[in-house]
Design a protein that fits this description.
4-stranded parallel β-sheet; 18% strand; alpha/beta
Length: 114
């Protein structure tokens, strides 16, 4: 991600969804700033906020969290939305050569491969 993207969440489940969403963004390797913090200068990632309006001059959008969705489900829907817009990538980068060698060595030690 090369810029700051502001995602404003609204609705009864917004706070709980924001917590799960920030965790999931970090797991995917995207930068994330939780609602209780102000992003630092130069922050590149998704700033999740609990507001109905976007700050002036920033890219982003407002998403209403459905009262029928669990926080986990709502966060996954939002991740899919962000991925569809190219804001985040949900694709795995695969293993590094070092990780591949470690896995190969473990399988060899267990006798699964020569």
């Amino acid at each position: 991600m090369t810029q700051r993207y502001v995602l404003c969440l609204t609705g009864d489940g917004a706070a709980a969804t924001a917590h799960v969403l920030v965790r999931r963004l970090v797991e995917t390797g995207a930068g994330a700033c939780p609602p209780d913090r102000e992003p630092e200068d130069g922050f590149h990632g998704v700033w999740v906020c609990l507001s109905e309006t976007l700050p002036d001059g920033v890219a982003g959008e407002t998403v209403a969290v459905s009262p029928h969705d669990t926080p986990d489900f709502a966060a996954e829907k939002i991740l899919d939305l962000l991925a569809g817009q190219g804001v985040v990538s949900l694709e795995s980068e695969g293993y590094t050569p070092e990780e591949e060698e470690e896995i190969r060595q473990r399988l060899a030690d267990l006798g699964y491969i020569d």
